[in-house]
Amino acid sequence: MPTDVENWKSEVYGNEIREHLMKFAEEGWESIPEDEHDAWFERFKWWGLYHQRNGQESYFMMRIGTPNGVLEPGQVEVVADIADEYARGPGENPEFGDAYVDWTTRQSIQLHWIRLEDVPEIFDKLEANGLSTQQACGDSWRNIVGCPVAGKDSAEFVDALPVAMDLNETFKGNDDHANLPRKWKVSVTGCEEGCGQGDINDLAFEPAEKDGVKGFNVRVGGGLSRNEPRLARSIDVFVPPEDADAVAGGISALFNDHGDREDRYNARMKFLTDEWGTEKIRRVLQEDYVDFELQHAGDDLRDDYTYNSGRNDDGHHDHVGVHEQNDGNYYVGLNVLVGRMGADDTRELARIADEYGSGEVRVTQRQNVIVTDVPEGNLDALLEEPLLDTYEPDPHPFMRGSIACTGTEFCSLSIVETKNRQVRYARWLKDNVEVPDGVEDFHIHLSGCTASCAQPQIADISLRGMKTRKDGEPVEALDIGLGGGLGAEPRFAEWVEQRVPADEVPGAIENLLANFEERKNGDESFRDFVERTDEETLAELVEPEETDYEDPYMHNTKMTWYPYAEDDDMDASPAPARADGSPIPSDD
User: Fold this and answer.
1) Domain final residue, candidates 292, 315, 338
2) CA dist 249 to 151, 225, 256, 258, 557, Å?
3) Are 40 and 77 in contact (CB under 8 A)?
4) What pLDDT score was predicted for residue 588?
5) Which parts of the sequence belong to the Nitrite/sulphite reductase 4Fe-4S domain (predicted)?
6) Are residue 424 and residue 507 in the same domain, yes or no?
């Protein structure tokens, strides 16, 4: 039998949701029938709106799609203005204030504390400036990701930007692909480093060459969510750029017809690939979904991939720092700790991008931002800007490597607090822990649950939200995984330690790195060390320990209305609230 979600989607879904959304916005939060909340909240996702968690009723997270991470001149300022005007809620974050922008691991933008009544005005401002929330969430094509400097990379093999933009133009708002069994994540990569992270996407176009033609090989079925990570697998197809639309549309249609609509857990391309195998997927694609003969895969560049590899000799390759473009100008990548930037700082980012570059900004899959098109003569002045004291182009490895998802601050799935915790972890590690010799990159990813929005399985140290008991009291805790990475030989982390109290995790990392320094062979990378060490030994090397690090969020933040509120009990929540912020009385 179809799931509840499939039944809801069969009644209203896709572009038609907008009419209902606008009507509810006009009439206010209270106009949504209480017994229809789940149905409408599921539908609203298609237009980029996630209802926030218990205790925050009437507030939404809004996701804005930026295809391939490209923000055109003027768009960053618009985002900052919207955050400043509409994304201030009843609670203030002690690290980030009460208006901020989140840059995501899929090169998108997220705003919080959005009220339904403000959505029409926000949509007007976004769409007047070429931005949209359409299909930023929901069961359809998500934001297309790729190399954040596509079209500008001095060592690019094939320019993937036109392909990514064409796919976005073709499939966003396309009714034939609007109601898929689940989310559909697509990566288009043209660089030699593999920074589009195709391995963890449902559909990946990766740089290749066949008979002298540069284009893309096709892989399917990657993903990290829940406890079922998969690497994308080749279907033995080469696609010249002009055929990418047709092949992508064919695979999307194949998933639409054959993906599981009776079990949402099983409704991902990775499970269909498991079930069918790549040969059957290629055969059915050829027979039923494309009207030209598919070419066999060409020569790929996977042996050259270095992005997020975890290998010492592969360098940074995260686009942070100063880099020359293919036109003689430069781009400057800024490290944004855990991807969060205040509204005022976001406005400053827009200013310096306009003053020193072309005004364009790119977003990376490591939650960072890039100022592009900077003439060499402007570099020194740009690097002296005060904003770069906070968002450094040459950050410490623990700051550079930190990624965190939204966490219990807003997310109903998360089990633990994440953003502020990872900020504190990174600062404590920077001040207290020696980086092992030879290590320039060290990635620590903190995900609040098994949904893996922070992509923990591909980090040197993977942290995943759990609960445990300590001194007889329930506390927030983290599972610890080691040795994940992509690059030429992608590998998921090994989960070696479970339910470590959150305040003992920095001590565990300190001890682990000291043990690694003592036992590594020469300039061996952390990932190489993990690969040659058995799981039992790795668990022994972690050694959770209390230190002078103090974690203010050890209590059960999932059961609070807002983890940072002075009175965070559910009964203290001012939600639900009207557009002016006044609370809506409950019926009882």
Assistant:
1) 315
2) 23, 24, 10, 14, 42
3) no
4) 41
5) 137-288, 399-545
6) yes
User: Which residue shows structure tokens 């509409």?
Assistant: 86
What is the chain's length?
588
In a domain, 378, yes or no: yes
Looking at the fold, whether 433 and 342 belong to one and the same domain comes out as: no
Pull the structure tokens for residue 298. 């060409």
Shared-domain flag, residues 381 and 404: no
Domain extent for 333: 321-392
The answer for residues whose C-beta is within 8 angstroms of residue 7's C-beta and 6 or more apart is none
Closest by CA position to 83, among listed 128, 126, 143, 40 = 126
Residue 482 in domain? yes
Output the CA–CA distances (angstroms, integers) from residue 442 to 298, 465, 467, in the order listed: 33, 20, 26
Structure tokens given for 467: 């609960």
| Number of domains the chain is built from | 3
Tokens of 432: 């207290």
Q: Which two tokens stand for residue 386?
A: 């005060």
Given a contact cutoff of 8 angstroms between Cβ atoms, the answer to whether 294 and 282 are in contact is yes
**487 lies in a domain?**
yes
Distance of CA 185 to the CA centre of its chain: 11
Distance in angstroms (rounded) separating the CA atoms of residues 220 and 205: 9
pTM assigned to the model:
0.97
N- to C-terminal Cα distance for the chain?
A: 37
Domain end: 542, 563, 582, which one? Answer: 542
Alpha helix stretches (DSSP H) within 365-438: 379-383, 387-390, 397-400, 419-432
On whether both 358 and 436 belong to a single domain, the answer is no
- 262 with 406, same domain? no
Tell whether 562 is covered by a domain: no
pLDDT value, residue 226: 79
- Residue 228 shares a structural domain with residue 376: no
Contact status, residue 376 vs residue 304, Cβ threshold 8 Å:
no
SS3 393: coil
Residue 359's CATH number:
3.30.70.3340
Nearest to 445 by CA among 413, 407, 409, 411: 407
Give the span between the Cα atoms of 24 and 35, in whole angstroms.
15
* Bridge partners (DSSP) listed for residue 475: 468
Tell me the CATH number at 438.
Answer: 3.30.413.10
- Give the three-class secondary structure for 562: coil
Peptide bond into 395 cis (omega under 30): no
Residue 8 φ then ψ, to 5°: -60, -40
Residues 298 and 335 both lie in one domain: no
- Could you give the dihedral angle defined by the CA atoms of residues 130, 134, 137 and 141, in that order, rounded to the nearest 10 degrees? -100
Q: Please tell me whether residues 357 and 461 are part of one structural domain.
A: no
Q: What is residue 330's predicted lDDT score, i.e. its pLDDT?
A: 98
**Are 398 and 542 within 8 A, CB to CB?**
no
- In the predicted model, residues of the chain with pLDDT beneath 70 are 586-588
Residue 49: C-alpha distances to residues 21, 61, 134, 454, 544 (Å) = 10, 6, 9, 19, 39
